[in-house]
Amino acid sequence: MKKVTIFGLSLSLPLLVWQLLFFAFPLVFLVALSFWVVENYRMVPDFDSVNWTKMFSRGVFWDTYLRTLALAAGASVLVSILAFPCSYGIAFKLSANLRRLAIFLMVIPFFTSYLVRVYSWQIFLSDNGILNAAFGLVGAGPYTMLNTDFGTMTGYLTLCLPLVVLLQVFSLMFVDRTLIEAAHNLRCGRLRTVFLVIIPSARVGIVIAALFCFILTFGDFVSPLYLGGGKPPTLSIMITDTTKAGQQWPRAAVIAIVMIATLLAVAFSAIGYAYRKRA
Amino acid sequence: MAETLVVFDDIVKSFGDVIAVDRMSLDIRKGEFLVIMGSSGCGKTTTLRMLAGLDAPTQGEIRLGGHRINELPTWKRDTPMVWQSLALFPFLDVLRNVEFGLKMRGTDKATRRRKAMDWLERLGIAEFARRDISQLSGGQRQRVALARSLVTEPEILLLDEPLSSLDAHLKVRMQAILSGLQKDLGITFVYVTHSQSEAFSMGDRIVIMSRGRIEQIGAPVEIYRTPHNHFVAEFLGSSNIFRGRVVSVDGGLVSIETGRGRFRVTGSGAGTAQEGTSTVFVVGNDRMVLSQDRPADAGNFLEGRVIGEEFIGATVTIHMETGDGQEIRAQKSHGEIAHLNTNVGERIFASWQPESAYVLPGEIDGPP
Amino acid sequence: MNRNRLIDWGLRAYVVLAFAFVFAPIAASFVFSFNVDRFPSLPLGGFSLRWYEAIAEDPLVWEGLRNTMVVGICASVISTTLGFAAAYTDFRYRFFGKPVYLALALLPPTIPVVIMGLAMLAFLSRVNLSGEIHSVIISHVVMCSPFAMAIIRLRLSQMDPSLEAAAWNLGAGEWRALFHVIVPFARPAILAALFITMAVSFDEFAVAWFVSGLNETLPVRVLGFLQGQVSPRINAIGTIVFLTTMTLVILAQVLLMRRLGRVEEMPRTDEA
């Protein structure tokens, strides 16, 4: 069936047209927008690099960029490490039925309002919130947790943990059990087996999970704003501020393009690393 | 001679660089049970799919009842197929599966139901009409697939290795059902398989294919007794194959010089051999005579050592190897070899009558 | 041996802890929505429905709910339709540029929502489509259709490819085979895709916030509350949102799991 048919076209074209028009084109338009200028609070089509030079010459932009990068990278490592024992437990220490149930339950929060969950963390973390009340009972605290990097990380963990656990579980489930038994049989201890056999075997899934964590946290503005306090900001907060507070969309576009470029670079190197031939 | 129903006229089918069917011409007769046999990748399934209209030939013409059907899509042909996977619709019950073809043809509901029930009854599965496919056994599913294809009363039915997933015992029963059905209905069956036993037990004619070409067409006995060429003889595995040079032709008696000696051949096909040409002759496994001592008659025999034996039902196949490494097979009944010592490594002689040897017509005038 | 069992139980306890972390905010939101105190903390105050009454009296909440419903239903129906067609395209056809096609179909969820929001806002206002409820629908279809496509594509990969060919062979043209074979086979996945995309749309606040203008959806309303002062009204709304999306996601998963079990059932080999 090599022929192009009306049947085939009417099934393949709708999504293509939609995503070209409302996904690819807006992103391309963003690039054009970054060269426009703002005159008298109105945007005028132009081809001027003023937005780029302005943004790049600001120290605060670079500070924010590095801070965002550090936060996202830190979150990827932290979430991956915190998720691993959980994924390992689900993949190897639960019965098949419990494992199915665990996966079933982990899928739910992934699709359930992140915004409200972040709000709920405010109740836990605020100065007279649940956690400090609990600490008070044992005579500790109060601690300042809201509007700190700890708050931001808690939010990131809320955002990413379910997805990272799911991806890690799927990759661990496909590790050949006989490899593990062979390692034990060769007198490789439990912990050494984890590091020498299991993690290398599940590398692709673990790296991809960390990559997704990076993508999600790098672009998130809710946790750093409502749990981290927003000061100093992240790139995403900068975009919302620049967009919502006036007509400086071209400068927001510059930030957005820098973010996409960063994400692409990180994604390609992560995927390259994940699928690298073993030496 | 029966009327011709389907004609494959110089058909080529290629997928990219791969040629699946290579300049094939074939006539299929009305009311015959035709089996297309070959190993996987020989082009047999592609041939069937072209007839069904699921693949279009790259070159050549297919005619059904005298009309060119190359461009006719499968849904406008009346060439129902029974699939290897059966391809029963899992979301429909048995009855609705069988009704499907009629529904697509716009048959009204009452007629549809009646015809479908008739077929379910005929195949003895009427009680399962309202069952889900997943609740049926393999044999029952097979019958549903048959009923679904036959309910539209086609004049040809295509079957693509439909029995390959059944166990041996069920296979034999389904073979009987298929043969009976084909005779009762009097329609053409085109049946693709890699199994010799299915082909020889059901086929009126058998087509043997290899690498996209037809190697031989003929009735089962004809193919079994007189394979056309080296490929067919080897594919059937029922003969010992010898390659040699014709040194003399004297009427029906041909002398052929092989690396292992000179043999006399008087079987059919021998008369066409030309002196000085290279040729191939075969001796059926069951025509070999075994003895522990050198045969008295200094005729056709070979000396070797036993390398193993294989028990299939009531017969034993002794495998022996000659000094220069050719393997010889002899198929005997248990009684025939009771007096022989057939332990591995024992010296043994295999001999045969000149009239048991048969020169392959497809190998005459081959390169020396 | 004892040490091994200790480690095993330690790991299981860790799993429970992880689930506690994930579900704690959801549970807290639920509990505090019925708590009478203005500032949520421990110990709990009395049971009260006052926050539900407060949101029930808020016309902005009602309007947000109405907008969310309209957007959710439209976005899920459109994105499931488009996702189904694209999944079928990927299932059946091979063509030049297919990797690009698949990238366009699947990549949107990996683009940060603020960037999507900015791009959609800039583009839609340029073509005068911004600030309306259909702007939100358009953006949500972009974000939801990859989920629909992935779910339905997965289901199609479990289908015997000769099923469709069998339908053609029995006289069904391509369209009739599509509706009589592909759609019924994929039905559980199609329903699951409807539910999942609706859940995604129900919870999406960022892009909606950028492009919705005055036609705020419920999550955008919540964002507004968050920017104001702490109010247990968010817990009340949150509980409703949680219950809705959890129901949708659970339904979708049950649909997908139940059907999977049935297809994998092998034929019985005994002859009746």
Description:
The complex is a heterotrimer of chains A (279), B (368) and C (272). Chain A has one domain (58-274): MetI-like fold. Chain A contains 13 helices and two strands. Chain A has helices at 6-33, 50-56, 59-92, 96-110, 114-125, 130-137, 149-173, 177-185, 190-201, 203-219, 222-226, 235-244, 249-274; strands at 37-39, 42-44. Chain B is α+β, with helices and mostly antiparallel strands. Chain B is 23% helix and 35% strand. Chain B is elongated, with a radius of gyration of 25 Å. With 272 residues, chain C is an all-alpha fold. Chain C is built from eleven helices and no strands. In chain C, α1 (2-33) crosses α11 (233-263), α3 (59-92) runs antiparallel to α8 and α3 (59-92) packs across α10 (218-227). The chains are: A mainly alpha (279), B alpha+beta (368), C mainly alpha (272). The B-C interface holds B 52-54, 73-76, 79-81, 83-85, 87, 89-92, 100-101, 104-105, 134, 136-141, 148-149, 152, 167, 170, 173 and C 160, 162-163, 165-174, 176-177, 180-181, 184-185, 187, 262-263, 265, 267-272.
Secondary structure layout:
The complex is a heterotrimer of chains A (279), B (368) and C (272).
Chain A: H1 6-33, E1 37-39, E2 42-44, H2 50-56, H3 59-92, H4 96-110, H5 114-125, H6 130-137, H7 149-173, H8 177-185, H9 190-201, H10 203-219, H11 222-226, H12 235-244, H13 249-274
Antiparallel strand pairs in A: 1-2
Chain B: E1 4-15, E2 18-29, E3 33-37, H1 44-52, E4 59-64, E5 67-68, E6 81-82, H2 94-104, H3 109-122, H4 138-150, E7 156-160, H5 168-185, E8 188-193, H6 196-202, E9 205-210, E10 213-218, H7 220-225, H8 230-236, E11 239-250, E12 253-258, E13 261-265, E14 278-284, E15 289-291, E16 301-312, E17 315-322, E18 327-333, E19 347-351, E20 357-359
Parallel strand pairs in B: 3-8, 3-9, 6-7, 7-8
Antiparallel strand pairs in B: 1-2, 1-4, 4-5, 9-10, 11-12, 11-14, 12-13, 14-20, 15-19, 16-17, 16-19, 17-18
Helix pairs in contact in B: 2-3, 2-4
Chain C: H1 2-33, H2 50-56, H3 59-92, H4 98-106, H5 113-126, H6 133-156, H7 162-169, H8 174-203, H9 206-211, H10 218-227, H11 233-263
Helix pairs in contact in C: 1-11, 2-11, 3-6, 3-8, 3-10, 6-8, 7-8, 8-11, 10-11
Distance between the termini of chain A: 43 Å
The helix content of chain A, as a percent range, equals over 70%
Radius of gyration of chain B: 25 Å
Number of helices of chain B: 8
The CATH topology of chain A corresponds to MetI-like fold
CATH topology of the largest domain in chain B: Rossmann fold
Give the second-level CATH assignment, the architecture of chain A: Orthogonal Bundle
Strand content of chain A: under 5%
Shape of chain A: globular
Mean of the pLDDT scores of chain B?
A: 89
Number of strands of chain A: 2
Strand line-up in the sheet with most strands of chain A: 1-2
- Could you report the average pLDDT of chain A, rounded to the nearest whole number? 88
- Interface with most residues: A-C, 84 and 89 residues
Percentage beta strand of chain B: 35-45%
